[in-house]
């Protein structure tokens, strides 16, 4: 924990430092931004004046241009004079230059500004110088042109004068001529008109006029001459020609003069004027001759033009420079502004991005750090615990080893315990039948430890020879592995008892590498299970007893009474046949009343007696007796309760009818007394129920019909017989009736029929019949059995007699229910004891009827109300034989 | 400074308002200088009279006069200067047709009234009239038409008996064309075929013109003369010397007094038509003229009348005196009383105050008015 905390604190201090640095960075960036903004502002502030200055300069330069255009467009010095003052332009130029010089360094830097300023200054000065030169040139040109104009004007005036003079001379001559004509017209001689010179003077004067007019034109041409060449051409050709012609005409005029002095003088004056004009035009002596002036003017114009071109070039150059400067300034300003803005934005974005990144990274780092710290802490704790563990490991490695060994042992033990804890005992046996390997604890506790090479039957069964023999035989079959193991195993003993415990046996084939190498015996202690079964059985028996108690208390009482009598008889029996017969009867009766425990115990005793000579041991008898009492304990009280008389509705109706009819008193007494007599219907119903139960046990579908005919018999007379009659019923169901399959094969209805019937005989005797529609008695088999026993029996009567002997049976295996050849003997004995006779009618494949007849003197049977006619019963008996032709061998 | 400005402004305005500048470009030197000087004298005399009486609507009238030597090349610049530099309200009483020819486009362009020029040339009398050109006197055509009428109707001359002596310029042509129209009106359409001598302005070289008129093939009984007094005088003198006995009829522009003086003894019988009455006549204006102390003469009288006409229009101008308002006042239909009889109203189609012509003849050293040309005696 301590290092983690110090890491944390270190990290916190690191974070704080990082944060501080970030804040510092942001502050720094904002400082930069501020500085850049200031710079931008300064550039903006500087760029504007610079551009303003450049614009001013440009304006000034354009004014120079304008001025030059004006200069060149001037025609006179007077027009030029107002343009002489260049001061405003120079002032503007100087001002703009000053402004620019001041502003430029902020925009483009000192060095570049200085260079640009110097270049501009040079250009401006050049333009100004040239402008001055141009001005003076134009001025000079104007001066010359003014002189030229003045001279031209003078010349024109002179020429006009000359023309006027010539015209005047011509006019004078004309007038002279006209006047002469008028004199001639008035009659004067015509000689003067004809020979006079007036006409010739007039013509010559006219020619002079023409020449002078041409001269005037020439002066105009001179004036218009645009170049030296043209001027020279004019001089050389036209001027000299014209001058000479004019002179010639003047000569002609003078020659023809003969008039007044005035005219002579005027012509002389004309001549002088003409020469003066000629001199003024192109005289050598005349310094200010028209031609010289024109030459000078042309020269000046040419100079001015050159200068103007130069100035224009200079100005254009300047303009270019200004443009360049402007561009530079604006570009610079724009660029720097832009770049500064970009930088600014970049800085802002960068700072924001940095901030965001820092914040993100910070968050992320903090989170990660927290996680890491948490992990670190955990690791620390784990490390600490590990180190502690290590310490302890170091401290007692041996202990650990011992512990682990102990654990292994414990596991082994646990395994062992598991094995041992299993309720089943596992005993593995090799194919020779010797116990191999370790037996489970259960096996050890149940059967003891095994010594080497102990046969398993010896180990399991001890001295139980019979079981041992059986097991040995089966085991050999198992080990041979010829018959399928399961089949062989099913023949093996599945249950055995030892030391008061009951065990079940199960067999498993043991394979080793797919080879049958041994058998595992799984032995389960089923003692409790068996006991539980017994208890359950007891409970069932109890229930059945109670059921019988409720439905047929008298029957049950009779059964109990019979059974107890039989039990006493069994104790007192001194001969084996009687003992067996009693046991058998007891077994059958108990089965009829559902007392399976008694029935089974009787059966066991029968088995035990079958295996040995002699009678029952007192202990065995006592055991049976105890069982009986135990079984009857619950119902004993109810049974012991006061006897009741049961009436059905008919009997009640009968007695009520007799009373209302006020019958004979003795008759009514007889009637009431008869209520205590046994109703055959109850006995027959009880037997029927038993028959059905037996049928269910034997999986035979039996339909039982009871035909009691409302008979009552005197109690006590037939009690033994009723008890033994069950054997006949059982015999009929067990042996007489076929299984449904057998019946279907024999072409009969699957459901077998059994009829139990009592009939009143003429002498108030009773006939008891048990009829079935089974396979019939095999008299041949009876005869063979009689032969085997050394009894001579050939007739029907003899065979019937033999059949009713003890130990006679046609069945090969005795079952719990019948087949021991005991039952019919007991029935015959009881029948005879009550003075009765019996007979058997049988028809192979059709059925058998057992019939027992008791005389009225013994049974005093009587029919119930409304059913007491003898014949009716007889007819019913016949009708009820239902296709079974029973020969009346004995009535 | 403010105070001074406040003080200065009204005074300056008052000064400006107080004086109305009126320009004049005329011949103060050169052969026509007599005309120019007389004209100036007449206009100035009337303006002085008006100024003495308190001016027009409280405005003093100041006449700025420049010399153009009767040369168009000088008249144009003069007029431009007067308008552009001196900001004159109008150009009044200029002398000469050639000068007027260059002046009219200028005033039309500058929109400044050109008032009462001493010329009767048709260039000032277009139909319809130029907005800024106003005439006081009758036209040369009026004068020469009167001559033609008198010669043909009163004196019963044949048109072929009429010759022309004209100055070789717009003035001469104006007079000639007026006469030609009058002749045509009288049924003679060949005025160009009539004897016609021309002379150059500002010269006295009239011989050639004389030769044309004196040609033996023609016998003119009257010479209509449109020129200035010197050449006209020379022409008349020589013509008379060589025996041409004809009526020499001059238009008013000739400069009556100068002509008479120049001709001396040859002056008798020379006719000069006038656009103003003789100063001795009985018109209200003539009384004022006579009171003005001027040497009586037709030119100064014309100047005097021009001054009056101008003043009358100015008086009719409402509000500030501007060229436009002046023109509007002139064309407003107001009847202007020049003191020469019935007051006349101008309009958009009439910019001339008068078309009246008074013929005079020199007799015994003085001008005498006449009405019937038949009465004239040819020496």
List keywords for this structure.
heterodimer, A: 891 residues, alpha+beta, 5-stranded antiparallel β-sheet, 29 helices, 13 strands, 71% helix, B: 379 residues, alpha/beta, 7-stranded mixed β-sheet, 5-stranded parallel β-sheet, 12 helices, 42% helix, 16% strand, globular, disordered N terminus
Strand residue content of chain A: 5-15%
Sheet with the most strands of chain A? 5 strands, antiparallel
Largest sheet of chain B: 7 strands, mixed
| Order of helix and strand elements from N to C terminus of chain B | HEHEHEHEEHEHEHEHEHEHHHEEEE
Separate helix tally of chain B: 12
The share of residues in helices of chain A is over 70%
Mean pLDDT score of chain B: 88
Q: How are strands sequenced across the largest beta sheet of chain B?
A: 7-6-8-9-10-13-14
- Please give the radius of gyration of chain B in angstroms: 21 Å
Helical/strand content category of chain A = alpha+beta
The number of strands of chain B is 14
Backbone shape of chain B:
globular
Unreliable segments of 5+ consecutive residues of chain B:
1-16
Explained architecture:
The complex is a heterodimer of chains A (891) and B (379). Chain A is an alpha+beta fold. In chain A, β3 and β4 form a beta hairpin. In chain A, α1 packs antiparallel against α9 (290-395) and α18 packs antiparallel against α19. Chain A is rod-shaped, with a radius of gyration of 87 Å. The two termini of chain A are 117 Å apart. By secondary structure, chain B is an alpha/beta fold. Chain B has a seven-stranded mixed β-sheet with strand order 7-6-8-9-10-13-14, sandwiched between helices. A five-stranded parallel β-sheet of chain B has the order 2-1-3-4-5, with helices on both faces. In chain B, strands 11-12 form a two-stranded antiparallel ribbon. In chain B, β11 and β12 (344-345) form a beta hairpin. The longest helix of chain B has 20 residues, at 33-52. The radius of gyration of chain B is 21 Å and the shape is globular. Classes of the chains: A alpha+beta (891), B alpha/beta (379). The interface between A and B is medium-sized, with 15 and 15 residues.
């Amino acid at each position: 924990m301590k290092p983690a905390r110090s890491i944390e604190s270190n990290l916190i201090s690191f974070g704080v430092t990082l944060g501080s640095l970030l804040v510092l960075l942001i502050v720094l960036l904002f400082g930069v931004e501020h500085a850049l903004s200031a710079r931008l502002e300064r550039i903006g502030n500087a760029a504007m004046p610079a551009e303003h200055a450049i614009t001013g300069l440009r304006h000034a330069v354009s004014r120079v241009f304008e001025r030059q255009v004006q200069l060149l467009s001037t025609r006179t010095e007077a027009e030029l004079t107002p343009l002489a003052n260049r001061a405003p332009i120079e002032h503007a130029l100087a001002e703009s230059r000053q402004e620019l010089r001041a502003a430029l360094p902020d925009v483009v830097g000192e060095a570049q500004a200085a260079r640009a300023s110097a270049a501009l200054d040079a250009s401006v000065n050049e333009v100004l110088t040239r402008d001055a030169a141009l001005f003076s040139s134009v001025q000079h040109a104007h001066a010359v042109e003014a002189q030229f104009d003045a001279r031209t004007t003078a010349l024109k005036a002179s020429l006009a004068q000359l023309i006027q003079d010539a015209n005047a001379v011509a006019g004078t001559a004309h007038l002279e001529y006209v006047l002469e004509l008028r004199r001639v017209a008035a009659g004067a001689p015509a000689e003067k008109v004809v020979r006079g010179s007036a006409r010739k003077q007039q013509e010559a004067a006219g020619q002079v006029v023409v020449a002078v007019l041409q001269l005037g034109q020439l002066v105009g041409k001179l004036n218009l001459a645009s170049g030296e060449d043209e001027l020279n051409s004019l001089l050389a050709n036209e001027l000299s020609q014209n001058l000479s012609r004019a002179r010639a005409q003047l000569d002609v005029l003078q020659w023809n003069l003969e008039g007044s002095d005035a005219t002579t003088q005027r012509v002389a004056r004309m001549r002088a004027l003409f020469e003066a004009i000629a001199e003024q035009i192109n005289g050598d002596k005349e310094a200010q001759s028209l031609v010289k002036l024109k030459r000078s003017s042309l020269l000046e114009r040419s100079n001015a033009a050159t200068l103007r071109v130069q100035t224009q070039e200079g100005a254009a150059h300047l303009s270019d420079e200004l443009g360049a400067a402007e561009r530079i300034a604006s570009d610079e300003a724009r660029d720097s502004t832009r770049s500064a803005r970009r930088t600014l934005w970049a800085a802002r974005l960068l700072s924001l991005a940095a901030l965001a990144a820092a914040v993100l990274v910070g968050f992320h780092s903090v989170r990660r750090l927290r996680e890491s710290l948490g992990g670190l802490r955990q690791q620390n704790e784990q490390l600490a615990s590990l180190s502690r563990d290590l310490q302890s490991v170091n401290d007692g490695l041996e202990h650990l080893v011992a512990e682990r060994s102990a654990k292994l042992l414990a596991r082994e033990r646990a395994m062992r315990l598991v094995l041992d804890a299993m309720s089943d005992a596992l005993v593995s046996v090799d194919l020779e039948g010797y116990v191999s390997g370790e037996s489970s604890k259960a096996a050890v506790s149940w059967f003891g430890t095994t010594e080497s090479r102990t046969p398993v039957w010896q180990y399991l069964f001890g001295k139980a020879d019979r079981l041992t023999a059986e097991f040995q035989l089966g085991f050999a079959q198992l080990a041979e592995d010829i018959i399928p193991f399961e089949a062989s195993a099913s023949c093996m003993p599945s249950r055995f008892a030892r030391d008061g415990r009951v065990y079940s046996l199960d067999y498993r084939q043991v394979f080793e590498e797919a080879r049958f190498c041994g058998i595992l015996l799984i032995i389960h202690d089923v003692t409790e299970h068996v006991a539980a079964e017994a208890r359950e059985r007891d409970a069932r028996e109890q229930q059945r007893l109670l059921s019988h108690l409720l439905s047929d208390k008298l029957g049950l009482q009779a059964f109990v009474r019979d059974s107890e009598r039989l039990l006493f008889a069994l104790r007192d029996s001194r001969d084996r046949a009687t003992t067996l017969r009693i046991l058998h009867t007891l077994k059958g009766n108990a089965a009829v009343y559902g007392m399976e425990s008694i029935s089974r115990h009787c059966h066991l005793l029968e088995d035990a007696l079958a295996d040995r000579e002699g009678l029952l041991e007192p202990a065995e008898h006592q055991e049976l007796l105890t069982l009986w009492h135990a079984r009857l304990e619950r119902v004993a009280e109810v049974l012991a309760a006061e006897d009741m008389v049961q009436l059905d509705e008919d009997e009640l109706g009968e007695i009520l009818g007799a009373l209302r009819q006020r019958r004979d008193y003795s008759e009514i007494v007889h009637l009431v007394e008869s209520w205590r007599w046994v109703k055959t219907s109850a006995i027959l119903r009880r037997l029927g129920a038993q028959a059905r139960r037996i049928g269910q046990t034997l999986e035979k579908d039996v339909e039982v019909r009871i035909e009691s005919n409302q008979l009552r018999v005197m109690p006590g007379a037939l009690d033994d017989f009723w008890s033994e009659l069950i054997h006949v019923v059982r015999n009929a169901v067990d042996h007489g009736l076929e299984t449904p399959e057998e019946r279907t094969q024999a072409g009969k209805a699957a459901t077998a029929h059994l009829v139990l019937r009592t009939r009143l005989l003429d002498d108030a005797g009773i006939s008891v019949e048990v009829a079935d529609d089974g396979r019939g008695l095999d008299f041949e088999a009876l005869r063979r059995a009689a032969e085997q026993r050394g009894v001579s029996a050939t007739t029907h009567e003899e065979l019937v007699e033999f059949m009713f002997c003890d130990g006679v049976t046609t069945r090969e295996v005795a079952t719990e229910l019948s087949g021991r050849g005991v039952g019919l003997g007991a029935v015959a004995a009881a029948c005879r004891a009550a003075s009765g006779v019996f007979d058997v009618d049988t028809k192979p494949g059709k059925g058998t009827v057992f019939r027992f007849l008791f005389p009225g003197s013994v049974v005093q049977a009587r029919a119930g109300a409304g059913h007491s006619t003898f014949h009716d019963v007889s007819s019913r008996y016949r009708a009820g034989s239902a296709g079974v032709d029973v020969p009346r061998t004995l009535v | 400074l403010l105070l001074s400005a406040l003080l200065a402004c009204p005074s300056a305005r008052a000064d400006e308002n107080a004086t109305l500048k009126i320009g004049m470009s005329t011949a103060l030197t050169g052969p026509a200088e007599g005309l120019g000087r007389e004209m100036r004298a007449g206009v100035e005399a009337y303006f002085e009279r008006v100024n003495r009486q308190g001016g027009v609507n409280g405005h003093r009238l100041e006449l700025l006069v420049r010399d153009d030597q009767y040369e168009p090349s000088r008249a144009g610049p003069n007029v431009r200067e007067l308008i552009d530099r001196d900001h004159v309200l109008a150009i009044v009483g200029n002398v000469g047709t050639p000068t007027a020819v260059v002046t009219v486009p200028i005033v039309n362009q500058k929109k400044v009234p050109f008032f009462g020029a001493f010329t009767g040339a048709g260039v000032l009398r277009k139909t319809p009239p130029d907005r800024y050109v106003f005439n006081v006197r009758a036209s040369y055509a009026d004068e020469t038409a009167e001559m033609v009428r008198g010669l043909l109707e009163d004196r019963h001359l044949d048109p072929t008996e009429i010759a022309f002596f004209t100055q070789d310029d717009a003035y001469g042509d104006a007079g000639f064309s007026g006469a030609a129209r009058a002749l045509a009106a009288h049924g003679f359409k060949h005025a160009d075929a009539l004897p016609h001598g021309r002379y150059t302005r500002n010269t006295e070289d009239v011989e050639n013109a004389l030769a044309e008129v004196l040609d033996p093939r023609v016998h003119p009984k009257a010479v209509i003369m449109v020129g200035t007094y010197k050449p006209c005088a020379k022409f008349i003198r020589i013509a008379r010397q060589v025996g041409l006995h004809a009526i020499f009829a001059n238009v008013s522009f000739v400069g009556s007094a100068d002509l008479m003086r120049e001709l001396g003894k040859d002056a008798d019988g020379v006719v000069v038509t006038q656009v103003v009455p003789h100063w001795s006549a009985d018109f209200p204006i003539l009384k004022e003229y006579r009171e003005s102390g001027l040497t009586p003469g037709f030119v100064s009288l014309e100047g005097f009348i021009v001054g009056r006409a101008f003043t009358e229009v100015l008086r009719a101008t409402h509000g500030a005196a501007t060229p436009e308002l002046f023109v509007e006042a002139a064309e407003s239909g107001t009847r202007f009383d020049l003191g020469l009889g019935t007051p006349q109203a101008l309009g958009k189609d009439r910019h001339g105050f008068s078309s009246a012509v008074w013929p005079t003849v020199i007799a015994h050293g003085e001008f005498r008015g006449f009405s019937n040309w038949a009465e004239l005696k040819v020496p």
